């Protein structure tokens, strides 16, 4: 027996050494290949605060710690995904990630402004990075505490609960911080921008980024009532408190119109950057602009557009640029406005660090320069020869998904 023990140990030791070697090979391979594959954090403690997804499940986010000189810097990115504004439509979200954390992915691939790859993301790669999951369908703005219908509408509480949690995780000591968002998440970032800044009174720089969040009213173009009604329905159903909207806007117009960014961006005090196109694929191709089907084919293949659709599209491009031009004339809001058919720029790396160049800068460069104050950036691409969108073939058109539309 006694003799065998060393042999057994020896054998086990070899096995363990082998295991450790193979594991560490796997781990390092895993780290290089998968360093952007980030696990979900489900915030169970939020439930007691009434901060829940549409189905009553806890809200969630994906978080990875900062390192090196990024250890006290934070970038938060709010997920988008349209809105819902009726029991029937919201019910369709109870069994997917847009209404329930039970259906969210366990991991999320971080890219672009959240990428840990220094080449792709030189200014933010080592920051604390957070992707805030979207499960309220109100751009993190609703607070309808009545839920007799079994559909919870608590977007604002979700935002507050997650902020509280991140502050405790170290965000309270942030030196640099960004609140960003895409699409409906961008609307949330605009809405919460000044409030976020107030949470970080000791930070050196706090700024906000809206990616494809300027949903225009375009009051003189077809569908203006449809667009206004959509936001009015969202505000009413989701219970967006009127006093949470900027009073500088609500004192001037019907409060439901204060969900259009053009009506309140000028009053945001925190430095802001807009990433936009004059031809937003969602706004043009969805029932936000028309009723969907008629526009889908046209926005994917110009040759299928009717002459009147082409005219509307030209007029729309002009209206968007005018709206943004007015913002840039009266504010120091940074902006990168190109002319490709697109919705969202931080989903695909091509949108962030290569495909678009204005004034010799990619979005990644323009945003980095603006954030650190190396260079101000306010560019609107306008080519009189091209009244329609440019065909940016390098980009895959995002898929038309009717389920995203209220
Ligand atoms: C991310 O990690 C999870 C869990 O380890 C794994 O199942 C998934 O395949 C990974 N995703 C990618 C894109 O590597
Ligand atoms: C969840 O993961 C699947 C598979 O990787 C992916 O196709 C899908 O887009 C992800 N959903 C979200 C909301 O990120
Ligand atoms: C980082 O990004 C660059 C440029 O996209 C790419 O060539 C490189 O392979 C990436 N590195 C890793 C480790 O993924
Ligand atoms: C504001 O607009 C909504 C939606 O169009 C409408 O129902 C409401 O009556 C308006 N309120 C006022 C005070 O005009
Ligand atoms: C959708 O738009 C098309 C073309 O403009 C029109 O013919 C159709 O009646 C509309 N459908 C609905 C449901 O509004
Ligand atoms: C859109 O294109 C598809 C396939 O080419 C066609 O079946 C459909 O009828 C088109 N829709 C409209 C509204 O033109
Ligand atoms: C852009 O050009 C490509 C190649 O010529 C073509 O297949 C595609 O349909 C065009 N896209 C649009 C939106 O016109
Ligand atoms: C454009 O930018 C690149 C690298 O950022 C630089 O090398 C080049 O000189 C710039 N070109 C002009 C015309 O400014």
UniProtKB/TrEMBL annotation:
Residues 1-29 form the signal peptide. GO terms for biological process: cell wall organization. It comes from Erythranthe guttata (Yellow monkey flower). Keywords: Cell wall, Cell wall biogenesis/degradation, Hydrolase, Secreted, Signal. Hydrolyzes acetyl esters in homogalacturonan regions of pectin. In type I primary cell wall, galacturonic acid residues of pectin can be acetylated at the O-2 and O-3 positions. Decreasing the degree of acetylation of pectin gels in vitro alters their physical properties. Belongs to the pectinacetylesterase family. PANTHER family: NOTUM-RELATED (PTHR21562), PECTIN ACETYLESTERASE (PTHR21562:SF65). InterPro entries: PAE/NOTUM. One of its GO terms (cellular component) is plant-type cell wall. This is Pectin acetylesterase. GO terms for molecular function: pectin acetylesterase activity. It is found in: Secreted, Cell wall. Its EC number is 3.1.1.-. The keyword Hydrolase applies.
């Amino acid at each position: 027996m006694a003799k065998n023990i060393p042999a057994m140990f020896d054998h086990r030791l070899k096995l363990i050494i082998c295991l450790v070697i193979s594991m560490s090979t796997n781990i390092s391979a895993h780290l290089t290949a998968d360093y952007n594959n980030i696990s979900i954090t489900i915030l169970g403690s939020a439930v007691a605060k009434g901060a829940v997804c549409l189905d009553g499940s806890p809200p969630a986010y994906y978080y990875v710690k900062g390192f090196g000189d990024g250890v006290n810097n934070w970038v938060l990115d709010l997920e988008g995904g349209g809105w819902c504004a009726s029991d029937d439509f919201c019910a369709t979200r109870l069994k997917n990630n847009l209404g329930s954390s039970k259906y969210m992915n366990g991991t999320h691939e971080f890219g672009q402004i959240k990428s840990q790859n220094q080449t792709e993301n030189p200014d933010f790669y080592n920051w604390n990075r957070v992707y805030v999951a979207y499960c309220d369908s109100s751009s993190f703005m609703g607070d309808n505490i009545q839920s007799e219908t079994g559909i919870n509408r608590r977007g604002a509480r979700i935002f507050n609960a997650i902020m509280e949690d991140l502050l405790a995780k170290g965000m309270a000591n942030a030196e640099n911080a960004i609140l960003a968002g895409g699409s409906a998440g961008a609307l949330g970032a605009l809405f919460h921008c000044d409030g976020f800044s107030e949470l970080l009174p000791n930070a050196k720089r706090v700024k906000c980024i809206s990616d494809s969040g300027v949903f225009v009213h375009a009051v003189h173009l077809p569908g203006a009532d449809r667009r206004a009604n959509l936001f009015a329905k969202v505000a009413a159903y989701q219970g967006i408190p009127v006093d949470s909207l900027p009073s500088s806007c609500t004192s001037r117009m019907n409060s439901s119109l204060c969900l259009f960014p053009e009506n309140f961006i000028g009053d945001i005090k925190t430095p802001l950057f807009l990433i936009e196109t004059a031809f937003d694929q969602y706004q043009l191709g969805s029932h936000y602009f028309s009723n969907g089907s008629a526009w889908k084919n046209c926005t994917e293949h110009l040759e299928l557009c009717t002459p009147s659709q082409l005219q509307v599209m030209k007029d729309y491009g002009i209206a968007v640029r005018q709206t943004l031009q007015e913002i840039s004339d009266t504010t120091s809001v940074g902006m990168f406005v190109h002319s490709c058919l697109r919705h969202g720029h931080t989903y695909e790396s091509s949108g962030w660090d290569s495909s678009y160049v204005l004034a010799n800068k990619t979005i990644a460069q323009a945003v980095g320069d603006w954030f650190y104050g190396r260079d101000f950036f306010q560019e609107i691409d306008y080519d009189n020869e091209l009244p329609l969108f440019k065909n940016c073939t390098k980009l895959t058109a995002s898929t038309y998904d009717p389920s995203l539309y209220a």
